[in-house]
Amino acid sequence: MLYQYETITNTGEKKNGSIDASSKDSAISALQRRGLIVSAIKEEETKKGILKLSFFDKGVSMKDIVIMSRQISTLFEAQVSALKAFNLLATNTENPALVKILNVICSDIEAGVSISEALSRHPDVFAIFYVNMVKAGEESGKLTQTFSYLADYLDRQYQLTSKTKNALIYPGFVIGVFLIVMVLMFVFIVPRLSVIIKESGQVIPWSTKIVFALSDLLINYGIFVVIGLAIFVFYIFRLSKTESGQKYLDRIKISTPILKNIYIKLYLSRIADNMDTMLSSGITIIRAIELTSVVVGNRVFEDLLKDVGEKIKSGSSLSEAFSLHPEIPPIMSGMIHVGEETGSLGSILKTLGKFYAREVNEAVDTMVSLIEPLMIVALGLGVGLLLTSVLMPIYNIAGGV
Question: Which of 76, 192, 254, 305 could form a disulfide with 293 if both were Cys (CB 3.0 to 4.6 A apart)?
Fold first, then answer.
């Protein structure tokens, strides 16, 4: 909640402003920690008659966090204090949602709260992985390097995830347009041609009968098809919100032909990259595995990492724990074993992260290069069969005239 306040400083100067806090008592306590005497405070009233369309509100993207982390690292390298650094970011950031959050963080830091604790109060923007990295940087005195690590890590993940998603946009768009065109043909064009062909009295080929049946289905029962698709989409949506449903959908991701090659390498890249980043910041290996399980993005691999963590607590090495799971390729557990023996686990994980990131990029490029010709062939066959089924009887009629 946002509270408007009036305060008096030790020198008698009056100050007005606003503060974001969970309650009025929390707001008063935060102001008092700044050495201010609160003379009046009230919750900011919501303006009536104005409808806030949250659908159009701009949120905080990963790209915003990458830029922010990079800027903080640069400011810390220039020996700028934490409070001033976040104040500078708040005044120079274009995203209004992030500006609001940065202003709250500034207020918390000014009140004596640590940076990691201030960030943890915004879990929708700063993930537990991010907060724990900052906390480790505070404890080790490597806060500048930590924000640099975070910026590099998030930038790599952003580029990797964006490329994977963007690779599916073009095929999805083309297939969507194709389906719309086909439906329009079945609903508006085919019925008119079917009347001509049926009135001709000629023998109708089986392929043409199938086309006419599909056309009749869409015309007479199209609304039920749409309702059925809507129910199916709603079911998938509800399923994705349950624990078992999420695990089931995540299992499909890593078992579907072609796609599994991309997804598995994407998760392996995240695991290696996450652990390298955290170990470089001084986080223990068990804690690194726990945090990686939270941000890996797949319930199957999340359970896998939790089991690995338990195995390590029981005395197993990281490579031994990984080798017990078929989802982890032998080359990964083997290289980790070499890293453990040589004391260069961090560099091995960094190498693995780069290796699997490169593999994902190559897999995405290969998939895109294969999808385009396959899609063209499939669409060509679909259009060709439709036109052949409808136009051949028309040609027969014309030839018999």
Answer: 305
Q: pLDDT value at position 311?
A: 92
What is the spatial distance between Cα 271 and Cα 49, in angstroms, rounded to a whole number? 49
- State the Cα–Cα distance between residues 88 and 74, nearest whole angstrom: 12
Main-chain phi, psi angles of 4, to 5 degrees: -90, 135
190-199 and 206-240 helices cross at what angle (nearest 10)?
A: 150
User: Mapping DSSP to helix (H, G, I), strand (E, B) and coil, where does residue 401 land?
Assistant: coil
Token digits of residue 300? 């199957």
Segments making up each domain of the chain, as ranges: 2-43, 58-126, 151-401
Q: Which residues contact 12 (CB under 8 A, 6 or more apart)?
A: none
| CA nearest to 211, candidates 385, 339, 86 | 385
CATH architecture of the domain covering 151-401:
Up-down Bundle (1.20)
Closest CA to 102 of 150, 128, 67: 67
SS3 call for 132 = helix
Return d(Cα 208, Cα 283) in angstroms, integer.
67
Nearest 10 degrees: CA dihedral of 138, 141, 146, 148?
Answer: 130
Q: Helix 345-400 crosses helix 259-280 at what angle (to 10 degrees)?
A: 160
Per DSSP, helices labelled H in 185-205 are: 190-199
pLDDT at 21: 59
Under DSSP, the state recorded for 297 is S
Q: What is the pLDDT of residue 400?
A: 54
Q: What local confidence, expressed as pLDDT, does residue 58 receive?
A: 52
User: What is the per-residue pLDDT across 191-218, written as a single tens digit (0 to 9) for each?
Assistant: 887 887 777 777 778 888 888 888 888 8
Query: What is the rounded distance in angstroms from the CA atom of residue 327 to the CA atom of residue 260?
Result: 11
**CB 153, CB 188: distance < 8 Å:** no
- Low pLDDT (below 50) residues in the chain: 46-57, 401
Model pLDDT, residue 26: 63
pLDDT score, position 50: 29
Q: What are φ and ψ of residue 78, in 5° steps?
A: -85, 15
For residue 38, the SS3 value is strand
